[in-house]
Amino acid sequence: MSALFASIPFAIIATGALVGVAASLLGTFLILRGDAMLTDAIGHSIVLGIVLVWLATGQASGPVQIVGAAVTGLATVVATEALARTRRMGGDAAIGLVFPALFSIGVLLLNLYARDVHIDAHTVLLGEIGFVWLDVVPVFGVDVPDALLWMAVVTAANLAFVVTLYKELKIATFDRGLAAALGFAPGLLGYALLGLTSATAVAAFDSVGVVLFLAFAILPPAAAYLLTDRLALILAYAAGFSVAASVLGYLLAVAWDVSIGGTMALVAAAILAASFLASPRYGLVAQEVRRRGQVEANENRALTVHLFQHERGPEAGEENVLSALRTHLRWGDAKARAVVARCLDARLVERSGQQLLLTNAGRATAREILEPAGRRAGAGG
Amino acid sequence: METLASLAGDYTVRTVAAGALLLGVTSGALGAFAVLRKQSLLGDVLSHAALPGVALGFLIAGGRSFAAVLAGALVTGVAAALTMLLLTRRSRLKTDAALGIALGSFFAAGVVLLSYVQGRAGAGQAGLETFLFGQAAATLRSDVWLMAGISIVAIGLVLAAWKEFSAVTFDPVFAASIGLPVAILDATMTAMIALAVVLGLQMVGVVLMSAMVVAPAVAARQWTNRLGIMVLLSALFGAVGGVAGALISASGRGLATGPLIVLALTAIAGFSLAFAPNRGLVSAALLRALERRSLADRRVLGALEALALQHDDPGYPSEQGMLDAYLGTASGWRLRRLRQHGWVRRVRHRPEEGIHWRLTEAGARRARDARSEERADMRGEGGNR
């Protein structure tokens, strides 16, 4: 056990994974509510809280820091909403006005008071996940890295929040009106969500920094959201992606000798890109396949309708041949051949010398277009 | 600390001030369009997305060449905007998630590239970190020339395509209906935000550059409803905030320039938000208070007038206690104020009776005018419906 916690790679990977799991538990709901960019505002503005609490208590991490600095995050949200309510600016401009100001004050205070200490602007911004194993605290006789311990506590808190209020969160996210009618106080739930997001960002800042926190909170749930419609599955996939990003990110970062936190976030981005491209239901490839299928089905229908219109008439001999498709339907040679081949395969059409004849299935397809069920019923009645 | 006069004569300080001026004017003017188009958060994404470009520019140029860094930042900024566009158009993710994804991915790539550069490069890499928070003092004369070139191009573009930009900003549907190439104009205006962001890399840094775009425009918006004036004011505010922040930073103490400029701009925005005529929150509250007062005055005059009419006596003395009961509030201090206007007069009364008031002729006229004004208001509102 103590050997495990003493292992540097384990400490780093576990911390990264916990940041990801804790953040994406909340990030899932933020994405679904359309509040993803509030993560960015919170991430920046907690810098001020971190510095103020540090100046007041001398503690750079731990429970005082997590609760104290999280207040700044929540305050940012409240201030932003209040500004937007004055209707003197859009909600986006309100976000863009508030957090840079708070962040600036935080950075200046760091410049003034914290030149040569553990806490400096660069660390706050980018984090030092590679050094999380340096600060350890004994827990039941085992030395556990400080950051890992507090990330575990925050993850447990987030998990408890999501599990106990799962039903309420779900309804408040998808149908705010219904949640209010049922007495679930969706506004209060929203603030609880954003408060926990702030606390998580504070706990995560010395490992991944305040800006990358956004990547850990948004990228895994977004990737999961492109794969499934079920909320529980989104949460589970996002947690899985976070762990995978942490492990892979660590290995790649060590191999390339680059920033560990950055590489973890970059792997999460790669997972998102893969899910954006290859998701069976919502992916680009699936969309393209579906579109092609539609185009082909339409071409098949066009051919059967063309044959159907002419099969009884005297012109059938010259209309229902391959060459007529080029002039009549204005199809290119290759396209005409491909469509005919497809319809032959699908047994919509048969060939008899040069003539193309409809099968019964083909005739039925044409009738579906020419005599829709609704019109036939209407004509009969 | 040096005096301001010696500061102004200093070569470095003049360079810094010139750069901050260019940056403030350009990002202020371009920011006006971004804020009106509700693209403030896009500015935030583009500024963070400049980081990988900074590192790439450094890697490709093999040194801290300002031009290469700017070009790299512009390219990755535009790439982030395109990523965001692709995600919103071709996936079921909402705009804010797409913005967050573009920001997170590109910034992560920037962090990785930055650590790569620092891991291998020699002495030249030292300057790269200043692009995070900005360092005005590191600005060179040649940097300022480059910034001037970019500013001229950007401002020239705004002036040349003024009508098109304003049409797309306020009513894209109308713009499309009169045959403007909305998609191209859209892309141009987004690229211009990226341009403004790139301009501020040296002074403000990637993390805070979005505020350069948003704050002056929000401030300017409070003073005017006209686009032209708003763009001018925004440029002016940007310039004032930029130069103030840069000079404070350059005067020593090792304070990062970006935060100082941002705070100067936030102060301007806060002042505008509070005190701009009409839209300012304090001004609006004052206006409301004045309106309330005049309404209350009219009610007192109206009550006196009604009593006078009822008694067929234009000089009918009404007892103050009765007025209080009629209006449901203590009216003594209001009546005393109205007396200063010459609209009411205290009337002689026997000591055992309460205080009595009557309308003067001017007061009767005022009450009549107020009534016809109110009727006109109501008719006007009815007509609008």
What attributes characterize this protein structure?
heterodimer, A: 381 residues, mainly alpha, ABC transporter involved in vitamin B12 uptake, BtuC, Arc Repressor Mutant, subunit A, 2 domains, two-stranded antiparallel sheet, 19 helices, 76% helix, B: 385 residues, 17 helices
CATH class of the largest domain in chain A: Mainly Alpha
Strand content of chain A: under 5%
Q: H/E element string of chain B?
A: HHHHHHHHHHHHHHEHHEEH
Helix content of chain B: over 70%
Going by helix content, strand content and strand pairing, the class of chain B is: mainly alpha
Q: What is the subunit organization of this protein?
A: heterodimer
Distance between the termini of chain B: 65 Å
Structure report:
The complex is a heterodimer of chains A (381) and B (385). Chain A has 381 residues and is mainly alpha-helical. Chain A is 76% helix and 4% strand. Chain A has 2 domains: 2-281, Orthogonal Bundle (ABC transporter involved in vitamin B12 uptake, BtuC); 286-380, Winged helix-like DNA-binding domain superfamily/Winged helix DNA-binding domain (Arc Repressor Mutant, subunit A). Chain A has a two-stranded antiparallel sheet with strand order 1-2. Chain A has a two-stranded antiparallel ribbon with strand order 3-4. In chain A, α14 (284-310) packs across α17. The model of chain A has no long low-confidence stretch (mean pLDDT 88). By secondary structure, chain B is an all-alpha fold. The longest helix of chain B is centred in the last third of the chain and has 30 residues, at 281-310. Chains A and B meet through α3, α5, α6, α11 and α13 of A and α3, α5, α11 and α13 of B.
